[in-house]
Amino acid sequence: MRLSTVDLQKRLNANKRKSMPLWLTLLIALLAGASFILALAPYGFWPLAVASPALLYALLLPDMSGKRAFIIGEAYGTGLWCVGAFWLYTSIHDYGDTPAWLALIMIALMGLGMGLFHGFLALLFNRVVGKQPLAFAALWILQEWLKTWLFTGFPWLFVGYAFTEQYWLSSLAPVAGVFAVSFVAVLLAASMVELLRRRGGYMLVIAALLVISTSLWLINPQWTTPKGTPDLSVSLIQGNIPQDLKWLTEYQVETLNIYAKLTSTEWGRDIVLWPESSIPMFQDEAVGFINEMVKMAKATNTTWVTGIPYRDKAAFNPSTDKYPPFYNSVVALGAEADGLYKKQRLVPFGEYIPFEGVLDILPNLAGSQDILSYSRGSDQQSPLRVRGHNLGAAVCYEVAYPDTTRKNAINTDFLLTISNDAWFGTSAGPLQHLQMVQMRALENGRWFMRATNTGVTAIIDHKGRIIKRAPQFERTVLRGDIQARVGNTPFMLAGNYPILIIITLLLLLSFLGKRSSTRAGLGK
Question: 422-462, pLDDT tens digit by residue?
Fold first, then answer.
């Protein structure tokens, strides 16, 4: 049956009358995004990881204009990031000496910028693909994946992290990674909305996926197995050095004394691990102290692993370089130890200046010639060798990158990550960071040692369970044992490719289906 232009306009006007005012829709979207933080650590109310995307899906009504869909998605994303990453305020204001008003503006701008991911998600969902749960979940994973590399990446606030300790769903992590967990959760969210709209067909799809996930949990396949060697005794040192003192030249000796004193009772353990940059100077400036620690380690048959800035003078070319390259690194020393790991994923503006070369051609920019950046480590580094085992490393922020950690985990027996989350004070940031380490342990079927300056220092098993953790903001030592494991999880072998192929096919089929239905409608 053909509809006249008048009839079509009447239907459009009727839809507009039924829809909520735009300001109310945007407010609900903003609150839906902001509420997602409660699904993550330290709150852990995981049902909100389903309810939050479900609200966004429900707000993206049929016959909505692309512009309206985009700003609804933008509002959701802005709420998500302004609240979910508000821990950045501590580093910007408290330690960056930025006025409170300016720090708040910077957080708001960050939220608006990161909100674009959800803005374009909503736009594509509205205008390009069919409006159904599979397409929505696929677009969601696309924007999460883009956050791991676009503009250097900011891979935070993924839906899958809310289910790190919900093993009925996180059992998918060693199979296809955190994005697979996110996919099922978002698909469940969108399907529930469709069920409330009395279109329950998609519940069959989500039911099948949940059966697969729950079966994996019940069967509990051992993707990796113990190596058969005795567990290793470890001591993780938490120095609790105040962030405003850590890099002061006059406090360097005191920092070294604090770590040396905390470690004095730990010599004789298999491994002693110090946090990121616990030696707050280049290795060639701390030769005497390092030699003394190595001497103690070898005398007590202990492996000493520490974070330290590493300056590579041998790689310096005065004709082309302004200064020798230097790295945020981890070094293994002492008994049965060898290796140096250089951090690959650097923090923009914290560890390097994006487009630094551009600044060099702006002679009138004050201080541009004094900007120094860490160098990036190669993505083809060998594991550390520790007591006859291969040890994979991740420094601070880079453990948030699933694929980087996966590559570093290949051919290793266990993993470590070191960090200095003092930048974020008592906010939720350090606890969100810990939750990511749990997910990386799940994905790769490996135990993790995590040593930090102020917390959270922890030992995590191959199932992502926290075996032991130290209290935050205390000068302490966390003692425990770790298990070496061998074998590869499916995620280690295939990475994100399976889930990316699946969402690509779903989006292609949805796009073709939308075109087909549109042509069929025009032909009536």
Answer: 889 899 999 999 999 999 999 999 999 999 999 899 999 99
208 & 144 share domain: yes
Q: How many residues does the chain have?
A: 524
- With respect to residue 405, please indicate whether it lies within any of the assigned structural domains: no
State whether 120 and 133 are in the same domain.
yes
Same structural domain, 231 and 285: yes
pLDDT tier for residue 419 given thresholds of 50, 70 and 90: very high
Separation of alpha carbons 116 and 77, rounded Å: 7
Same domain, 240 and 206: no
**Token pair 């609900």 in the structure block, residue:** 28
Positions annotated as catalytic residues are 276, 343, 396
Cβ partners under 8 Å of residue 422, min gap 6 = 241, 242, 243, 246, 453, 454
In a shared domain, residues 239 and 159: no
Taking alpha carbons only, the member of 430, 346, 437 closest to residue 87 is 430
- Tell me which residue of 397, 493, 496, 412 sits closest to 447, measured CA to CA: 412
Sign of the four-CA dihedral 452, 113, 177, 377? negative
**Total structural domains within the chain:** 2
For the question of whether the overall pTM of this predicted structure is more than 0.85, the answer is yes
Domain residues for 444? 225-399+411-424+440-481
* Stretch (H or E) spanning 225: strand 225-226
Lateral strand order in the sheet of 448-452: 337-338, 384-386, 389-395, 414-419, 448-452, 458-460, 466-469
What letters, b where the CB count within 10 A reaches 16 and e where it falls short, cover 496-505? bebbbebbee
Q: Are 226 and 483 in contact (CB under 8 A)?
A: yes
418-428 burial, b for 16+ CB within 10 Å, e for fewer? bbbbbbbbebb
Q: Is residue 71 part of a domain?
A: yes
Structure tokens belonging to residue 298: 């070898």
